[in-house]
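Quick one, tokens below:
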């Protein structure tokens, strides 16, 4: 039975219906279609908004995070009134207000090898709006095994990229482009490196466009093409992609035929539940700093982060500069290293210890935890 549009829907989608390439048939296909958005943050926000506005019949939202004030610079599906609310619920409220004709399902879970097939199987198109490598590889592998298109996008600082991975239609998968994940900690997250607020809007809108084309069958998708965007130069580039016949997932003779442990694949190990001898809590650092023999404080963040706020009497050497400036530091003096959240300073401590520094500790939780536990006047970012 052909899906019918109500008079209200015809009025709502009238600018689609008068497009000769789209028309009533295209809108009916959208109404019958379904999309699963993995991530309801930077990329997921414009994706969800435009897909709901366009009239996609069923949108699934997967995210287990809550709205934070630092999200609002770019995650436009959320607002000040929903700070502290789960992102899936916040986004659902906005989508229901935008278009009550769209069914919105929410999944407040982390995508894992145990639930990926169950989450993805009911949907026509999978959209990757994630920001970490384990979930990207998991999303890719599950999409390939289910034979579904994976509309991929990623953003960092001022640059983004987008494509459609669809081996079932002859295109490559994510592993064809990136066979191996980078070493843990090599690629900073957006929380560490920053992102221009409008960038996810550009890339997310491209992803939404590709999803609409896949559901309606119009136009030429980004299968076999990777679109690169540089916001500072306002320049788009395109790279040709090809399926790797030796790819372990989508190749001619796949060797990965079931979902694996993706944290292990990406070299990520669980953080220890207790402090090691090389770690120290901010409250302990504060006590130590007020003693007769305070430690040397090393801030390994970038200059722009230092300007936001820093601890008194700290010395700043970014983690990327540290290897070349070890001669400026005293191996005999007690040292505490800190960054934003403790990840970069942890790498810095490993680097220092490998270079012979023994009296060095990482301040767990970084300046964010210092702001929570010691001095709330230090701004969080």
């Amino acid at each position: 039975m052909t899906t019918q549009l109500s008079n209200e829907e015809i009025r709502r989608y009238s600018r689609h219906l008068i497009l000769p390439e789209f028309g009533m048939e295209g809108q009916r296909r959208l109404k019958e279609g379904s999309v699963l958005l993995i991530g309801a943050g930077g990329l997921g926000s414009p994706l969800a908004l435009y897909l709901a506005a366009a009239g996609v019949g069923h949108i699934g939202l997967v995210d287990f995070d809550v709205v934070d004030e630092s999200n609002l610079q770019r995650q436009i599906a959320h607002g000040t009134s929903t700070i502290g609310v789960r992102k899936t619920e916040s986004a659902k409220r906005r989508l229901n207000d935008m278009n009550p004709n769209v069914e919105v399902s929410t999944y407040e879970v982390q995508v894992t090898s145990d639930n990926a097939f169950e989450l993805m199987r009911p949907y026509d198109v999978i959209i990757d709006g994630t920001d970490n490598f384990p979930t990207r590889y998991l999303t890719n592998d599950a999409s390939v095994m289910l034979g579904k298109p994976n509309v991929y996008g990623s953003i960092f600082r001022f640059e983004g990229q987008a494509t459609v991975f669809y081996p079932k239609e002859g295109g490559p998968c994510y592993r064809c482009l990136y066979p191996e994940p980078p070493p843990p900690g090599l690629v900073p997250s957006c929380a560490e490196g920053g992102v221009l607020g409008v960038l996810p809007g550009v890339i997310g809108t491209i992803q939404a466009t590709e999803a609409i084309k896949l559901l309606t069958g119009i136009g030429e998708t980004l299968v076999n093409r990777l679109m690169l965007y540089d916001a500072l130069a306002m320049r788009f580039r395109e790279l040709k992609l090809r399926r790797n016949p030796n790819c372990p997932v989508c190749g001619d003779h796949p060797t990965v035929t079931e979902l694996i442990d993706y944290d292990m694949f990406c070299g990520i190990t669980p953080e220890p539940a207790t402090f090691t001898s090389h770690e120290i809590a901010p409250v302990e650092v504060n006590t130590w700093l007020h003693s007769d023999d305070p430690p040397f404080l090393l801030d390994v963040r970038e200059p722009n982060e230092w300007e936001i706020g820093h601890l008194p009497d700290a010395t700043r050497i970014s983690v990327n500069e540290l290897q070349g400036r070890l001669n400026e530091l005293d191996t005999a003096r007690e040292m505490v290293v800190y960054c934003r959240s403790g990840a970069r300073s942890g790498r810095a401590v490993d680097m220092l210890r490998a270079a012979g520094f023994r009296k060095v500790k990482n301040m767990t939780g970084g300046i964010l935890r210092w702001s929570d536990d010691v001095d709330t006047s230090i701004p969080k970012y």
